[in-house]
Automatic annotation (TrEMBL):
Keywords: Cell membrane, Membrane, Transmembrane, Transmembrane helix, Transport. Residues 1-64 are annotated as: Disordered. InterPro entries: AI-2E-like. It is found in: Cell membrane. It is a multi-pass membrane protein. The lineage of its organism: Bacteria, Bacillati, Actinomycetota, Actinomycetes, Streptosporangiales. This is AI-2E family transporter. Belongs to the autoinducer-2 exporter (AI-2E) (TC 2.A.86) family. Residues 36-54 have a biased composition (Low complexity). It comes from the Bacteria. The chain crosses the membrane at residues 72-90, 96-114, 126-151, 207-231, 273-292, 298-317, 329-346, 366-393. Residues 23-35 have a biased composition (Pro residues).
Length: 423
């Protein structure tokens, strides 16, 4: 007799096995599946079950300070304080910085001569001392010559004062119809003498301040001498100390810049000294021919002042010979002035381009602007230091800045002079 299959046999399970018929228990953390999930409809889009984890409903507080803001405030305050402290320190050390700049300039100026003496077997300290003695002798000679001129002129003026007074009175009476006389001037002497005595008394009362100023100038001069001596005598050790703090490629750049500064500064000083010597020789010959008093002193004055005082030195140098020549005769003063102007043109267009072409190849307008800038920054010292510093900077830029060919354009080419060819 055939047996009937048991219920549930079409599902592939046995009715008598309890492990096969029991469904697995649901996961306690998940919800029971929905009928749609158990029997999905064919072709229907499948949607993901929503996340059962609780969502955070708390938003960041917009009124809360960002964590980086306090650090930014502290950094800004520290920067401002450091900048203010730097300005205050720079103002307090301004005098020392100027002394160091002057000393460095002088050390650069005598470095070529010291190096030549050192190559011949001299010790650098002895060579530097020898250069100091030479400069001191030249300065003392120049000052003594000018002092003798000033003393002689003062003595001549005092001795000739009555004659000059008569000439001035006669000229004023003739030109303006005045009725001046010696008695009128003598009657005014007590008033002038009283005012002069009061000024001298005030000057004597301030003698302590004058003495303190003189002592300060003397101390600064000794400081310049000391710094210059050590910068020149200990130059190699000083440069080695600086280069020991830098990587090799930076060392080469620093040493090249140092070499350029020495060449330009030393060349500037020596070229100016040569121009001063040539100017003194020419002016001595001219003033001697014109029979101007104190020809040698005035020639030295013109040579030194015109070359070592930028821009205004030419006018200061030429004024003294003209005034001294005026005491001889107006025609002598006129010829002196004409010679000074002619020689200045000869120096500007013939001598100076050939002598200073290697040391200071700079446009006159640029040189004038450099002098004004140096004067505005650190005063008269900047007027003297500005030109060699600018020459060194120009040479450094020429060595490191690349230049390109300029395309032809009407704005970059000077027009040729027009010549009218007429038959």
């Amino acid at each position: 007799m055939a047996q009937t299959p048991a219920a549930g046999a079409d599902d592939g399970g046995s009715a008598g096995d309890p492990t096969d018929s029991a469904a697995p228990p649901p996961h306690p953390a998940s919800a029971p599946p929905t009928p749609a999930a158990q029997n999905p409809t064919p072709g229907a889009p499948t949607t993901a079950a929503p996340d059962a984890r609780p969502q955070s409903t708390s938003a960041p507080d917009a009124r809360r300070m960002p964590p980086w803001l306090p650090r930014a405030f502290v950094l800004a305050a520290a920067t401002v304080l450091a900048f203010g402290a730097g300005l205050w320190l720079l103002e307090r050390l301004r005098g020392l910085i100027i002394l160091l700049l002057i000393s460095l300039f002088l050390a650069f100026a005598i470095e070529p001569a010291v190096n030549r003496l050192a190559d011949r077997g001299w010790r650098r300290g002895v060579a530097t001392g020898a250069m100091f003695l030479v400069l001191a002798a030249l300065g003392a000679g120049f000052v003594s010559v000018l002092g003798s001129l000033l003393l002689n002129q003062t003595t001549t003026l005092v001795q000739s004062a009555p004659r000059y007074a008569d000439q001035i009175i006669d000229w004023a009476n003739h030109a303006f119809g005045a009725k001046l006389s010696k008695h009128t001037l003598v009657s005014k002497i007590p008033v002038v003498g009283g005012e002069l005595s009061r000024n001298l008394s005030a000057l004597a009362g301030n003698v302590w301040g004058i003495g303190a100023t003189a002592a300060g100038v003397l101390f600064q001069g000794l400081g310049v001498v000391l710094f210059t001596f050590y910068l020149s005598a200990e130059g190699p050790q000083f440069r080695r100390t600086i280069c020991s703090l830098l990587p090799p490629h930076r060392q080469r750049q620093v040493l090249r810049a140092w070499t350029i500064a020495i060449d330009k500064t030393g060349g500037y000083i020596y070229s100016r000294a040569l121009l001063a010597a040539v100017s003194a020789v020419f002016h001595y010959a001219a003033l001697t021919l014109l029979d101007v008093p104190y020809a040698l002193t005035l020639a030295l004055w013109v040579g030194v002042v015109s070359q070592f005082i930028p821009t205004v030195g030419t006018y200061l140098a030429g004024a003294a010979p003209v005034l001294i020549a005026l005491t001889r005769a107006p025609s002598t003063a006129l010829w002196t002035l004409l010679f000074i102007v002619a020689y200045q043109q000869f120096e500007n267009y013939v001598l100076q381009p050939r002598i200073t072409a290697r040391t200071l190849d700079m446009h006159p307008a640029v040189a004038f602007g450099v002098v004004l800038a140096g004067t505005a920054i650190i005063g008269p010292v900047g007027a003297v230091l500005g030109l060699p510093v600018a020459a060194s900077l120009q040479a450094f830029l020429d060595a490191y800045v690349r230049r390109y060919d300029v395309e032809e354009h009407p704005l970059t080419s000077a027009p040729a002079p027009h010549r009218d060819h007429r038959p």
